[in-house]
Amino acid sequence: MFDLSLKLDERSQQGLRRSRRIVESPQGINLICDGKAVVNFCSNDYLGLANHPDVINAFKSASDKYGVGSGSAHLICGHSRAHHALEEELAAFTGRDRALLFSTGYMANMGAISALVGRGDTVLEDRLNHASLLDGGLLSGARFKRYAHGDVEHLQNLLGNSEANKNSVDIPHPSPLPKGEGISRRLIVTDGVFSMDGDIAPVQALSAVAKRHDAWLMVDDAHGLGVLGDNGVGILEELKLSQDDVQVLVGTLGKAFGTFGAFVAGSEELIETLIQRARPYVYTTALPPVIAEATRTSLKLIQSEGWRREKLRQLTSRFRTGAEQLGLPLMASTSPIQPILIGESEQAVAVSNALFNQGFLVSAIRPPTVPVNAARLRVTFSAMHEELQIDQLLDALAKAIA
Ligand SMILES: *Cc1c(COP(=O)(O)O)cnc(C)c1O
Protein backbone atom coordinates (compact mmCIF):
# COMPACT_ATOMS: atom_id res chain seq x y z
CA MET A 1 0.00 0.00 0.00
CA PHE A 2 1.07 3.53 -0.69
CA ASP A 3 0.06 5.27 2.51
CA LEU A 4 -0.20 8.62 0.79
CA SER A 5 -2.88 10.17 2.97
CA LEU A 6 -0.98 9.29 6.13
CA LYS A 7 2.10 11.11 4.84
CA LEU A 8 0.02 14.07 3.71
CA ASP A 9 -1.60 14.34 7.14
CA GLU A 10 1.82 14.21 8.73
CA ARG A 11 2.93 17.12 6.58
CA SER A 12 -0.14 19.13 7.56
CA GLN A 13 0.52 18.51 11.25
CA GLN A 14 4.11 19.72 10.89
CA GLY A 15 3.02 22.88 9.10
CA LEU A 16 4.80 21.64 5.98
CA ARG A 17 1.86 20.96 3.69
CA ARG A 18 2.14 23.19 0.62
CA SER A 19 -0.75 24.56 -1.35
CA ARG A 20 -1.28 26.96 -4.21
CA ARG A 21 -3.09 30.25 -4.41
CA ILE A 22 -4.86 31.03 -7.66
CA VAL A 23 -3.87 34.21 -9.49
CA GLU A 24 -6.31 35.83 -11.88
CA SER A 25 -4.38 38.88 -13.01
CA PRO A 26 -1.17 39.34 -14.98
CA GLN A 27 2.05 39.19 -12.96
CA GLY A 28 2.93 42.49 -11.39
CA ILE A 29 2.93 44.21 -8.05
CA ASN A 30 -0.88 44.24 -7.90
CA LEU A 31 -2.34 40.77 -8.05
CA ILE A 32 -5.79 39.30 -7.75
CA CYS A 33 -4.97 36.23 -5.76
CA ASP A 34 -7.57 33.82 -4.33
CA GLY A 35 -10.11 36.49 -5.21
CA LYS A 36 -8.38 39.19 -3.15
CA ALA A 37 -6.45 42.27 -4.32
CA VAL A 38 -2.95 42.08 -2.82
CA VAL A 39 0.39 43.82 -3.22
CA ASN A 40 2.86 41.22 -4.39
CA PHE A 41 6.13 40.91 -2.48
CA CYS A 42 7.22 37.44 -3.52
CA SER A 43 7.72 37.42 -7.28
CA ASN A 44 11.04 36.99 -9.06
CA ASP A 45 9.90 39.47 -11.72
CA TYR A 46 12.43 41.93 -10.29
CA LEU A 47 12.38 44.43 -13.11
CA GLY A 48 8.65 44.36 -13.84
CA LEU A 49 9.08 42.93 -17.36
CA ALA A 50 6.68 39.96 -17.15
CA ASN A 51 3.79 42.18 -18.19
CA HIS A 52 5.68 44.96 -19.98
CA PRO A 53 3.85 46.28 -23.08
CA ASP A 54 6.94 46.02 -25.34
CA VAL A 55 7.52 42.41 -24.28
CA ILE A 56 3.86 41.59 -24.87
CA ASN A 57 3.98 43.21 -28.33
CA ALA A 58 7.10 41.26 -29.27
CA PHE A 59 5.33 38.08 -28.19
CA LYS A 60 2.21 38.95 -30.23
CA SER A 61 4.01 39.78 -33.44
CA ALA A 62 6.25 36.74 -33.08
CA SER A 63 3.18 34.54 -32.83
CA ASP A 64 2.05 35.82 -36.25
CA LYS A 65 5.47 35.00 -37.66
CA TYR A 66 6.27 31.71 -35.91
CA GLY A 67 3.00 30.35 -34.54
CA VAL A 68 2.99 28.88 -31.06
CA GLY A 69 4.75 25.53 -30.81
CA SER A 70 8.40 24.87 -31.66
CA GLY A 71 7.54 21.47 -33.14
CA SER A 72 10.50 19.47 -31.83
CA ALA A 73 13.80 19.50 -30.01
CA HIS A 74 16.55 21.92 -31.11
CA LEU A 75 18.54 19.15 -32.79
CA ILE A 76 15.62 18.00 -34.95
CA CYS A 77 13.76 20.97 -36.44
CA GLY A 78 12.86 23.13 -33.46
CA HIS A 79 15.82 25.55 -33.48
CA SER A 80 14.37 28.72 -35.00
CA ARG A 81 15.99 31.95 -36.17
CA ALA A 82 14.49 33.54 -33.03
CA HIS A 83 16.28 31.07 -30.72
CA HIS A 84 19.53 31.50 -32.60
CA ALA A 85 19.39 35.30 -32.50
CA LEU A 86 18.66 35.25 -28.75
CA GLU A 87 21.61 32.92 -28.13
CA GLU A 88 23.94 35.28 -30.00
CA GLU A 89 22.62 38.27 -28.09
CA LEU A 90 22.96 36.50 -24.72
CA ALA A 91 26.56 35.54 -25.55
CA ALA A 92 27.39 39.16 -26.40
CA PHE A 93 25.54 40.41 -23.30
CA THR A 94 27.41 38.09 -20.94
CA GLY A 95 30.77 38.46 -22.71
CA ARG A 96 31.04 34.75 -23.38
CA ASP A 97 31.91 32.94 -26.65
CA ARG A 98 28.50 31.35 -26.91
CA ALA A 99 25.22 30.76 -25.12
CA LEU A 100 22.83 27.82 -25.32
CA LEU A 101 19.12 28.02 -24.54
CA PHE A 102 17.49 25.45 -22.28
CA SER A 103 13.77 25.06 -21.67
CA THR A 104 14.10 25.76 -17.93
CA GLY A 105 16.79 26.62 -15.42
CA TYR A 106 16.19 23.32 -13.71
CA MET A 107 17.05 21.52 -16.92
CA ALA A 108 20.04 23.76 -17.66
CA ASN A 109 21.57 22.83 -14.32
CA MET A 110 20.80 19.13 -14.59
CA GLY A 111 22.13 19.13 -18.14
CA ALA A 112 25.30 21.13 -17.64
CA ILE A 113 26.52 19.31 -14.52
CA SER A 114 25.82 15.84 -15.83
CA ALA A 115 27.42 16.63 -19.19
CA LEU A 116 30.63 17.83 -17.53
CA VAL A 117 31.19 15.32 -14.74
CA GLY A 118 30.34 11.69 -14.17
CA ARG A 119 31.61 8.59 -12.44
CA GLY A 120 35.20 9.02 -11.31
CA ASP A 121 34.83 12.82 -11.14
CA THR A 122 33.90 15.05 -8.21
CA VAL A 123 31.30 17.78 -7.91
CA LEU A 124 31.57 20.22 -4.99
CA GLU A 125 28.55 22.30 -4.09
CA ASP A 126 27.59 24.97 -1.59
CA ARG A 127 25.18 23.48 0.98
CA LEU A 128 22.55 26.08 0.22
CA ASN A 129 22.63 25.70 -3.56
CA HIS A 130 19.34 25.66 -5.43
CA ALA A 131 17.68 22.23 -5.59
CA SER A 132 18.31 21.97 -9.35
CA LEU A 133 22.08 22.25 -8.80
CA LEU A 134 22.03 19.65 -6.04
CA ASP A 135 19.87 17.34 -8.16
CA GLY A 136 22.20 17.85 -11.13
CA GLY A 137 25.14 16.83 -8.99
CA LEU A 138 23.35 13.69 -7.83
CA LEU A 139 22.19 12.80 -11.35
CA SER A 140 25.71 13.11 -12.72
CA GLY A 141 26.98 10.10 -10.75
CA ALA A 142 30.11 12.04 -9.78
CA ARG A 143 31.34 11.93 -6.20
CA PHE A 144 29.18 14.54 -4.49
CA LYS A 145 30.57 16.83 -1.81
CA ARG A 146 28.93 19.76 -0.11
CA TYR A 147 30.83 22.58 1.55
CA ALA A 148 29.46 24.82 4.30
CA HIS A 149 27.62 27.86 2.98
CA GLY A 150 30.05 30.36 1.44
CA ASP A 151 32.94 28.65 3.23
CA VAL A 152 35.90 28.79 0.86
CA GLU A 153 38.24 27.25 3.43
CA HIS A 154 36.00 24.22 3.81
CA LEU A 155 35.94 23.89 0.04
CA GLN A 156 39.75 24.05 -0.04
CA ASN A 157 39.96 21.28 2.52
CA LEU A 158 37.64 19.10 0.49
CA LEU A 159 39.70 19.72 -2.64
CA GLY A 160 42.95 19.17 -0.79
CA ASN A 161 41.77 15.77 0.40
CA SER A 162 41.29 14.47 -3.06
CA GLU A 163 44.24 13.13 -4.94
CA ALA A 164 45.84 15.55 -7.35
CA ASN A 165 47.33 19.03 -7.57
CA LYS A 166 47.16 19.86 -3.92
CA ASN A 167 48.98 23.15 -3.71
CA SER A 168 49.93 23.64 -7.28
CA VAL A 169 49.43 26.85 -9.23
CA ASP A 170 49.38 27.78 -12.90
CA ILE A 171 48.02 24.51 -14.13
CA PRO A 172 46.12 24.87 -17.40
CA HIS A 173 42.44 24.06 -17.27
CA PRO A 174 41.35 20.80 -18.73
CA SER A 175 39.43 21.30 -21.91
CA PRO A 176 36.18 19.38 -21.78
CA LEU A 177 36.91 15.90 -22.99
CA PRO A 178 34.34 13.16 -23.15
CA LYS A 179 33.85 11.60 -19.74
CA GLY A 180 35.97 8.74 -18.53
CA GLU A 181 39.03 9.44 -20.66
CA GLY A 182 41.70 9.58 -18.04
CA ILE A 183 41.60 12.81 -16.08
CA SER A 184 39.41 13.01 -13.05
CA ARG A 185 37.56 16.30 -13.19
CA ARG A 186 36.40 18.55 -10.40
CA LEU A 187 33.52 20.95 -10.80
CA ILE A 188 32.70 23.57 -8.17
CA VAL A 189 29.09 24.73 -8.32
CA THR A 190 27.42 27.69 -6.64
CA ASP A 191 24.41 29.98 -6.79
CA GLY A 192 25.51 33.57 -7.58
CA VAL A 193 22.82 35.17 -5.41
CA PHE A 194 21.40 32.53 -3.05
CA SER A 195 17.76 32.16 -3.87
CA MET A 196 16.37 31.77 -0.34
CA ASP A 197 18.92 33.88 1.55
CA GLY A 198 19.65 36.70 -0.88
CA ASP A 199 23.34 36.80 -0.03
CA ILE A 200 26.06 36.62 -2.66
CA ALA A 201 28.58 33.83 -3.15
CA PRO A 202 32.28 34.65 -2.71
CA VAL A 203 32.79 34.05 -6.41
CA GLN A 204 36.23 35.67 -6.69
CA ALA A 205 37.64 33.48 -3.92
CA LEU A 206 35.91 30.41 -5.36
CA SER A 207 37.43 31.14 -8.74
CA ALA A 208 40.92 31.49 -7.24
CA VAL A 209 40.53 28.17 -5.41
CA ALA A 210 39.23 26.50 -8.56
CA LYS A 211 42.26 27.68 -10.54
CA ARG A 212 44.66 26.55 -7.87
CA HIS A 213 43.14 23.08 -7.87
CA ASP A 214 42.67 22.78 -11.61
CA ALA A 215 38.91 22.63 -11.20
CA TRP A 216 36.15 24.41 -13.09
CA LEU A 217 33.67 26.84 -11.54
CA MET A 218 29.99 26.95 -12.45
CA VAL A 219 27.85 29.89 -11.27
CA ASP A 220 24.05 29.89 -11.47
CA ASP A 221 23.17 33.58 -11.47
CA ALA A 222 19.40 33.15 -11.70
CA HIS A 223 18.80 36.03 -9.27
CA GLY A 224 21.72 38.29 -10.21
CA LEU A 225 21.11 38.46 -13.94
CA GLY A 226 19.34 41.69 -14.90
CA VAL A 227 19.57 42.89 -11.30
CA LEU A 228 23.27 43.26 -10.46
CA GLY A 229 26.06 45.04 -12.33
CA ASP A 230 25.83 48.42 -14.06
CA ASN A 231 24.57 46.79 -17.25
CA GLY A 232 22.57 44.05 -15.57
CA VAL A 233 24.98 41.27 -16.50
CA GLY A 234 24.84 40.09 -12.91
CA ILE A 235 27.32 39.01 -10.32
CA LEU A 236 30.11 38.36 -12.82
CA GLU A 237 29.90 41.92 -14.13
CA GLU A 238 29.94 43.28 -10.59
CA LEU A 239 33.02 41.20 -9.76
CA LYS A 240 34.61 41.61 -13.23
CA LEU A 241 35.01 37.87 -13.78
CA SER A 242 35.60 36.54 -17.27
CA GLN A 243 35.01 33.21 -18.93
CA ASP A 244 38.49 32.15 -17.76
CA ASP A 245 37.48 32.80 -14.16
CA VAL A 246 34.01 31.25 -14.30
CA GLN A 247 33.87 28.64 -17.02
CA VAL A 248 30.17 27.86 -16.79
CA LEU A 249 27.56 30.61 -16.34
CA VAL A 250 23.88 29.74 -16.00
CA GLY A 251 21.14 32.35 -16.30
CA THR A 252 17.38 31.97 -16.14
CA LEU A 253 14.86 33.91 -18.17
CA GLY A 254 11.81 33.46 -15.91
CA LYS A 255 13.03 35.92 -13.29
CA ALA A 256 14.38 39.41 -14.10
CA PHE A 257 13.82 38.76 -17.83
CA GLY A 258 10.14 38.25 -17.10
CA THR A 259 9.71 35.44 -19.65
CA PHE A 260 10.64 31.76 -19.45
CA GLY A 261 13.58 29.46 -20.08
CA ALA A 262 17.28 29.55 -19.31
CA PHE A 263 20.72 29.50 -20.84
CA VAL A 264 24.27 28.35 -20.26
CA ALA A 265 27.09 30.61 -21.45
CA GLY A 266 30.78 29.87 -21.85
CA SER A 267 33.44 28.74 -24.27
CA GLU A 268 32.85 27.36 -27.73
CA GLU A 269 33.93 23.87 -26.53
CA LEU A 270 31.63 24.02 -23.51
CA ILE A 271 28.58 24.83 -25.63
CA GLU A 272 29.43 22.21 -28.26
CA THR A 273 29.86 19.66 -25.47
CA LEU A 274 26.43 20.51 -24.05
CA ILE A 275 24.81 20.24 -27.48
CA GLN A 276 26.24 16.72 -27.81
CA ARG A 277 25.84 15.49 -24.25
CA ALA A 278 23.34 17.40 -22.10
CA ARG A 279 20.36 15.05 -22.06
CA PRO A 280 17.86 17.66 -20.80
CA TYR A 281 18.90 19.68 -23.85
CA VAL A 282 18.86 16.92 -26.44
CA TYR A 283 15.70 15.13 -25.39
CA THR A 284 13.23 17.92 -24.88
CA THR A 285 11.10 20.19 -27.03
CA ALA A 286 12.60 23.62 -27.73
CA LEU A 287 11.01 26.64 -26.10
CA PRO A 288 8.30 28.22 -28.22
CA PRO A 289 10.06 30.72 -30.53
CA VAL A 290 7.61 33.42 -29.38
CA ILE A 291 9.23 33.18 -25.95
CA ALA A 292 12.64 33.72 -27.52
CA GLU A 293 11.40 36.82 -29.38
CA ALA A 294 9.76 38.24 -26.25
CA THR A 295 13.01 37.61 -24.37
CA ARG A 296 15.03 39.52 -26.99
CA THR A 297 12.89 42.55 -26.16
CA SER A 298 13.39 41.97 -22.42
CA LEU A 299 17.12 41.89 -23.00
CA LYS A 300 16.97 45.28 -24.75
CA LEU A 301 15.02 46.73 -21.82
CA ILE A 302 17.47 45.26 -19.31
CA GLN A 303 20.33 46.92 -21.15
CA SER A 304 18.70 50.27 -21.84
CA GLU A 305 16.72 50.91 -18.64
CA GLY A 306 19.27 51.01 -15.85
CA TRP A 307 16.79 52.98 -13.74
CA ARG A 308 15.04 49.70 -12.93
CA ARG A 309 18.15 48.38 -11.18
CA GLU A 310 18.70 51.72 -9.42
CA LYS A 311 15.10 51.72 -8.19
CA LEU A 312 15.52 48.19 -6.83
CA ARG A 313 18.59 49.29 -4.90
CA GLN A 314 16.71 52.24 -3.41
CA LEU A 315 13.72 50.12 -2.39
CA THR A 316 15.99 47.45 -0.89
CA SER A 317 17.91 49.92 1.21
CA ARG A 318 14.70 51.67 2.35
CA PHE A 319 13.32 48.31 3.46
CA ARG A 320 16.47 47.33 5.32
CA THR A 321 16.71 50.64 7.14
CA GLY A 322 13.05 50.46 8.18
CA ALA A 323 13.29 46.80 9.19
CA GLU A 324 16.36 47.49 11.32
CA GLN A 325 14.54 50.29 13.11
CA LEU A 326 11.67 47.90 13.83
CA GLY A 327 14.07 45.19 15.00
CA LEU A 328 12.87 42.68 12.40
CA PRO A 329 15.13 39.61 11.99
CA LEU A 330 16.77 40.51 8.68
CA MET A 331 19.41 38.33 7.04
CA ALA A 332 22.75 39.41 5.54
CA SER A 333 21.43 40.21 2.08
CA THR A 334 22.12 43.20 -0.15
CA SER A 335 20.00 41.88 -3.03
CA PRO A 336 16.25 42.43 -3.63
CA ILE A 337 15.69 39.10 -1.85
CA GLN A 338 15.18 40.12 1.79
CA PRO A 339 14.20 37.16 3.97
CA ILE A 340 12.75 37.67 7.43
CA LEU A 341 13.84 34.74 9.55
CA ILE A 342 11.02 33.22 11.61
CA GLY A 343 12.19 29.74 12.63
CA GLU A 344 9.14 27.52 13.13
CA SER A 345 7.26 26.51 9.99
CA GLU A 346 3.81 26.99 11.55
CA GLN A 347 4.69 30.48 12.65
CA ALA A 348 6.05 31.43 9.25
CA VAL A 349 2.79 30.29 7.68
CA ALA A 350 0.75 32.16 10.31
CA VAL A 351 2.63 35.41 9.63
CA SER A 352 2.29 34.94 5.88
CA ASN A 353 -1.48 34.42 6.28
CA ALA A 354 -1.79 37.46 8.54
CA LEU A 355 -0.01 39.54 5.90
CA PHE A 356 -2.31 38.17 3.21
CA ASN A 357 -5.32 39.26 5.22
CA GLN A 358 -3.82 42.76 5.36
CA GLY A 359 -3.37 42.74 1.57
CA PHE A 360 0.27 41.69 1.19
CA LEU A 361 1.44 38.57 -0.59
CA VAL A 362 4.66 37.29 1.00
CA SER A 363 5.42 33.59 0.82
CA ALA A 364 6.53 31.44 3.74
CA ILE A 365 9.53 29.28 2.84
CA ARG A 366 9.82 26.08 4.86
CA PRO A 367 11.96 22.95 5.02
CA PRO A 368 13.14 21.17 2.96
CA THR A 369 13.63 24.29 0.82
CA VAL A 370 15.48 25.82 3.78
CA PRO A 371 17.09 24.08 6.80
CA VAL A 372 14.94 22.85 9.70
CA ASN A 373 14.05 25.68 12.13
CA ALA A 374 15.02 28.25 9.52
CA ALA A 375 11.56 28.89 8.05
CA ARG A 376 11.25 32.41 6.81
CA LEU A 377 9.27 34.95 4.89
CA ARG A 378 10.91 35.59 1.56
CA VAL A 379 10.28 39.22 0.71
CA THR A 380 11.30 40.31 -2.78
CA PHE A 381 11.07 43.67 -4.50
CA SER A 382 10.22 44.79 -7.99
CA ALA A 383 11.29 47.99 -9.74
CA MET A 384 7.54 48.67 -9.98
CA HIS A 385 7.02 49.01 -6.21
CA GLU A 386 6.59 52.47 -4.71
CA GLU A 387 8.38 53.57 -1.56
CA LEU A 388 5.02 54.01 0.16
CA GLN A 389 4.28 50.31 -0.40
CA ILE A 390 7.57 49.39 1.28
CA ASP A 391 6.58 51.47 4.30
CA GLN A 392 3.14 49.87 4.39
CA LEU A 393 4.67 46.40 4.22
CA LEU A 394 6.99 47.27 7.12
CA ASP A 395 4.00 48.38 9.22
CA ALA A 396 2.14 45.18 8.41
CA LEU A 397 5.21 43.04 9.20
CA ALA A 398 5.69 44.75 12.55
CA LYS A 399 2.05 44.00 13.43
CA ALA A 400 2.10 40.43 12.14
CA ILE A 401 5.32 39.43 13.90
CA ALA A 402 4.73 41.21 17.23
C1 LIG B 1 14.63 29.58 -10.22
C2 LIG B 1 15.97 28.98 -10.16
C3 LIG B 1 16.33 27.94 -11.01
C4 LIG B 1 15.33 27.25 -11.89
O1 LIG B 1 15.02 28.01 -13.01
P1 LIG B 1 13.65 27.68 -13.77
O2 LIG B 1 13.81 28.34 -15.08
O3 LIG B 1 12.57 28.25 -12.93
O4 LIG B 1 13.56 26.18 -13.86
C5 LIG B 1 17.63 27.51 -11.00
N1 LIG B 1 18.53 28.05 -10.16
C6 LIG B 1 18.22 29.02 -9.30
C7 LIG B 1 19.26 29.57 -8.39
C8 LIG B 1 16.92 29.51 -9.26
O5 LIG B 1 16.58 30.46 -8.39
TrEMBL record:
Alphabetic keyword roster: Acyltransferase, Biotin biosynthesis, Pyridoxal phosphate, Transferase
Catalytic activity: 6-carboxyhexanoyl-[ACP] + L-alanine + H(+) = (8S)-8-amino-7-oxononanoate + holo-[ACP] + CO2
EC nos: 2.3.1.47
Annotated positions binding substrate: R18, H130, T369
PROSITE patterns per UniProt: AA_TRANSFER_CLASS_2
GO biological process, one term: biotin biosynthetic process
Top-rank EC class of the record's enzyme: transferase
Cofactor(s) demanded: pyridoxal 5'-phosphate
Organism domain of life: Bacteria
Positions that bind pyridoxal 5'-phosphate: G105, Y106, S195, H223, T252
KW Membrane (keyword) present: no
Residues modified to N6-(pyridoxal phosphate)lysine: K255
Coiled-coil regions, chain positions: none
MF terms (GO), sorted A to Z: 8-amino-7-oxononanoate synthase activity; pyridoxal phosphate binding
UniProt subunit comment: Homodimer.
Alphabetical list of HAMAP family matching this protein: BioF_aminotrans_2 (MF_01693)
Family in the record: Belongs to the class-II pyridoxal-phosphate-dependent aminotransferase family. BioF subfamily.
Descriptive protein name: 8-amino-7-oxononanoate synthase
